[in-house]
């Protein structure tokens, strides 16, 4: 009597949860009667909790893609996904935090009240929102500045306030459009380090746009390199460097090798 052989099916491959995704995303504008393709067939997937930077020449569609994820621009075609839902649902559900190059603080409101503004809009109690805002200001190194007005702060300090405000609703996704681009190099590197510490503590999915190759390498798990006319993804470069990142890593041969790879891709457009 022959024995039957029982075979075990292979284990299913489980994909990591999606933090952000662009699936065949296209975006075109009409300028003076002519169609301008800002993004062409962009396919990108970012896992939850991942830190990904986008770098590319001006006009490659970096900010356009971020604004699509932020529900500030519609797509012409394709599907954007934010924390597993549409950008609109993510925004309405307060899953999104956005930081732009300009801090965009309300000049008549104190630092504390600027950070608490999203919670005020949500109807949180005054005591609750002020407590949360004070905790976030401490996290970004601005404890003691709660009553200051924005004009009394340096540019770097204003950006810290903007980051605290973006974090006030405990977002699952943080979108950052060149937040340190207007700052001097010393301030920029210090804020890079502070951002790494915030990300490690809160673990949001981060999409970070920059024109700085060293900044992209230092901050990211992966770097998306884009080319212009039309805006498209050239390559996604893995940044296989240990976490947590330290300033000394900027001098490591591995760091410079990744920089060189990205610089080559930018120069050649992936060709």
TrEMBL record:
Pfam families named among the record's database cross-references: ABC_tran
**Is the Nucleotide-binding keyword given for this protein?**
yes
Q: Name the source organism.
A: Aeromicrobium flavum
All copies of domain ABC transporter, residue ranges: 20-253
Q: Which UniProt keywords apply?
A: ATP-binding, Lipoprotein, Nucleotide-binding, Transport
**Would you say which domain of life the source belongs to?**
Bacteria
Q: Which PROSITE patterns match?
A: ABC_TRANSPORTER_1, ABC_TRANSPORTER_2
Name-wise, this protein is Sulfonate ABC transporter ATP-binding lipoprotein
Named from the GO MF annotations, one term is: ATP hydrolysis activity
